[in-house]
Amino acid sequence: MVAAADSLVWELVKNNNSFMRKKSGRTSRSGSVRFSVESGNLTSLSTYKYSGLANSKTIDISSTDDNRAALTLKTKKAGTSGKSGKAAIALNKSFRRTAKTISGQTADKYYRSDLKSAALAKYSAVYRGNRAAKGVKKAQPVKRGRA
Predict the structure, then answer these.
(1) Using CA atoms, how far apart are residues 111 and 133, in angstroms rounded to an integer?
(2) Which of 62, 124, 134, 141 has the fewest CB atoms nearer than 10 Å to its CB?
(3) Count H helices, E strands: the chain?
(4) C-beta neighbour count of 85 within 10 angstroms
(5) Helix (H) or strand (E) holding 122
């Protein structure tokens, strides 16, 4: 695979790619929102900052099969090799130690310090979901507005 600049890749994939989900608003005033479901996108928004396709350095936090979390980083080999270009780190310690690991991998090592807060927010959501799946804590009821 030929190496290309991140901004060039974003210009090629920003309007059309297989991971994009367009959600139209209910009114013309609210407009439409574009989401993205690619791996490496922490907020699921289709923007250059969070894109897992266009950036050479990405962070992804996901839930594993055994209701734990994993932190995945792109490595230097990712441009030339497909799946082997990712490094996975198991996040199975206490919440505080895992938060320290995430901030250590993002900001302290100068990897992607701009994604630190988004990565911690994503880990918090995955952690809550895993606790509900394990039966440790009840799932939060969905708010439906006025009843």
Answers:
(1) 31
(2) 141
(3) 3, 5
(4) 14
(5) helix 116-134
Contacts 24+ apart (CB under 8 A), 20-27: 20/46
Buried b (16+ CB within 10 A) or exposed e, 18-29: ebeeeeeeeeee
Region for 25 from its dihedrals, namely left if φ exceeds 0, alpha if ψ lies in -120 to 50, beta otherwise: beta
Interior angle at CA 22, CA 19 and CA 26, nearest 5: 160
Mind giving me the DSSP string for 71-118? EEEE-GGGGTSSGGGEEEEEE-S-HHHHHHHHHIIIIITTS-GGGHHH
* C-alpha dihedral, 58 to 95 to 35 to 41, nearest 10°: 10
Query: How many residues are listed for the chain in this entry?
Result: 147
Q: What is the pTM of this model?
A: 0.80
